[in-house]
Structure formats: structure tokens, C-alpha cells
Amino acid sequence: MRADLLLQGYKAADGAVFTGMSRRDPSLLVGVGVKYTTPVGQFWAETGVDATGNSKGMRSEVGVGWRISTDSAIGKWTFSPYLSAQLNNAKLTNYYFGVSNSEATASRPAYQAGSATNLNFGVSAVTNITPSVSLLLGARYRYYGESIRLSPLVDSKGSIGGNVSLLYRF
Known about the structure:
By secondary structure, the protein is mainly beta. Helices cover about 5% and strands about 50% of the residues. It is built from two helices and nine strands. Strands 1, 2, 3, 4, 5, 6, 7, 8 and 9 form a nine-stranded antiparallel β-sheet that branches. Strand 5 and strand 6 (about 75-90) form a beta hairpin.
């Protein structure tokens, strides 16, 4: 079992491009996933549906990653580069990136978004600070599927994301 919170929602006050748009709330995707680790790398597949009912959509993803461990002057690190393809069905994509006829303006035409396959390229890194505390770092680039790139709400071909986390083991 797995759950992913999509914080892609917005309200009209979030920017000029959203003026006159109906509010889009976050979605909670609930589903299943499987991972398989081999000497060559780790493979995974997961799928989930929107449990909030906001988008009434679903997302599926398949990916592959590798683990590279190092022992250097700055400590022991494990790096995990990965590639994945993420399919958002038309309902999920249209909820966040579509523009209804009532939301359309002269500068923002109506747009019915179809399904979109995003490509993700990223790397995560982890090192132990103490036996019970680890530092986790991550960075990724998401190349948007065509249905998202063509949306009048989107002005780029992709997005960059990152995270910094501390993990404490009890």
C-alpha cells in the first residue's frame, strides 16, 4: 500500500494566470506499488487513484534506479540515480491543467487536457550522521507530457524539484 499527496492545487489568488479559475484542491493518491531489487538495479511500479475525489483521476509509474556507494573524505554516501515514466490519466491531468469554457479568457483559451506521460530524471543521496540519524538529499527534473506542456496554464517544458530530510531511527 502507498499514498502520495499531490500539492498541485491552486486558487485564483496564486497568480495572474489563475485569475478567474476555479480552485483546484490537492489530491491524495492511494494505491499499491512493488519494488524488485537485482544486482543490476532496482525496478518499481506503482499505481494510485484519487481518494479525495477532487480529480477522480489516477496515476501510474514505472522506473529503474541504481545504487552507488562511496567512501570518501566527506564520509560514506549512497547515491541513487533513477529514471521513471509517470502516466497521469486524462481526468487527473485535466483537473490540474485544463481550462473549462467558463474559465476561458482572451489570453487563456479553453483547454481539455488528455492523459500525459511525464519523464522523471533524478538522484537521491544518503549518509549517516550518527548511527540513528541520516541525512537524505534529493533532486529531480520532470519533463512534462505533451498534454501538460500545451496547457495555457503552463509556461515551461518541465520542473525541478528537490528535498532535504533528516531520518531518525528509533
